[in-house]
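call fold(seq) -> tokens
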Amino acid sequence: MCLGIPMQVMEIDGYVARCAARGAEREASLLLLQDEPLVPGDFVMIHLGYVIQKMTPQEAFAAWELYDQMLAADA
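ret:
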């Protein structure tokens, strides 16, 4: 099973965004959202190194809550 990871955009350089979540930073391609205006501070869903959608902060936090519940149930 593959999951998208909610992250916050920290910096944008062309079609690459540096994103952060829970102390981890990753670079992700913005090519799939070329027509979606993104700015640092926006929340996005990242899957396989690509930003696949823009999210609200509430959607991002809800996703992390769900992931935390899944991890707790597995432990």
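DSSP finds one helix and five strands in the chain.
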